[in-house]
Write a structure and sequence with these properties.
Layout lengths: L1 H19 L13 E13 L13 E3 L1 E12 L4 E16 L4 E20 L2 E16 L7 E17 L2 E14 L7 E14 L2
Antiparallel strand pairs: 1-3, 1-9, 2-4, 3-4, 4-5, 5-6, 6-7, 7-8, 8-9
Length: 200
């Protein structure tokens, strides 16, 4: 399901970008450098599902949840950019007839972005960097936890109108949590779309 949704989002952006190339004469190309801000909406998936305090006991697990985020960045030139972001990855929930619990995760990250132009206003990109995650649980008596690790991802972007852009993207957060802690270690995938405003 995760792969199918990402492919659908990518095809939507690619189709819209192709249609956006049609008008003649085309509008002037956007400035390839400068600051920008954006917001993302989609969903997250905990790849190892319910772990730590949410595991065992015959509980059912819901490892998918809506996710959203905000970010700011600076495009250095046609091929490179840098971003910092906050993303709320939502909750992983476990439940049984007699009990329920959840783990909530939010992350701050800093990433470097490599850009591959496809058309004048349409490109693919990859990112790599580091994150710091904060986790909390509804299970009583367990303190919040922070952890840091590697994050990476890829996506498509269409600069469709003046300072406005649209993205379809996937990002992975590796080893969220700590081995041996009540939260244990999980891997999170975030998929979604994002809107961007570029300062000119």
């Amino acid at each position: 399901m995760t792969t199918r949704l990402f492919i659908l989002l990518a095809l939507t952006v690619a189709t819209a970008a192709a249609q956006g190339q049609a008008p003649f004469p085309p509008p002037p190309a956007p400035t390839p450098s400068g600051p920008y801000v954006g917001a993302a909406l989609g969903y997250s998936q905990a790849k190892k599902e319910c772990v730590g305090v949410l595991s065992g006991g015959g509980q059912t697990c819901d490892a998918n949840d809506p996710a959203f985020g905000v970010f700011g960045g600076y495009r250095l030139n046609r091929y490179f950019a840098a971003e910092t972001a906050y993303r709320d990855l939502g909750k992983v929930r476990a439940s049984s007839p007699s009990a329920s619990g959840n783990i909530h995760t939010g992350v701050f990250d800093v990433t470097a972005i490599g850009i591959v132009p496809i058309e004048e206003r349409f490109f693919a990109y990859g990112r790599i960097g580091a994150y710091r995650a904060s986790q909390s649980t509804s299970v009583g008596g367990i303190a919040d936890q922070t952890s840091s690790q590697l994050t990476y991802g890829a996506g498509l972007q269409w600069d469709f109108a003046g300072p406005l852009s649209l993205r379809a993207e996937w990002q992975r957060y590796r080893k969220v949590g700590k081995q041996g802690s009540p939260y244990e270690v999980n891997y999170y995938d975030a998929l979604g779309v994002a809107g961007i405003w570029r300062f000119r």
